[in-house]
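Hi U.,

Before I forget, here's the chain from the pilot set. I'm dumping it here mostly so it's searchable later in email.
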Amino acid sequence: MLVVAIIVIMVGIGPRIMIQFQRFLKLTDARDAIQKDARTSLDTINRTLRQGKSSSIVIDQASGQPPYSRVTFTTISDISVTVYQQNKYLYMTRGNTTSVLSRDLRYIAFTFPRSDDPTIVSVSITMERASYEGGTKALELSIEKVRVMN
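Structure:
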């Protein structure tokens, strides 16, 4: 009788444990993916922005997109670069080549944290990815004070 009771309890609890474990795995996978994506995107933006000419930096927005979600500048080798948000995508146009930096973007913002110093640009990014049952996992990262070297 005791064995049957233990089996009934295990059968009753087992599916809930498996569902919780599956949710945990999906949430962990979403978190890891957006962390990697955000770090890679911020690193690329940081390295490219450092090569820009501070006098050429323009922060604005693309039509229909959030404010401060696009930065345009010219590098020291006179290549025009634009980093911008288009819905859930983060694009970088370098010369005539456009590449997708991220497909999980929720919001990006470029600002000048100091009005007296145009060589410092602040970047803030929020990534979001679906996890389970309509839920999402969001991650916000920011780079304070990217120093434009030129």
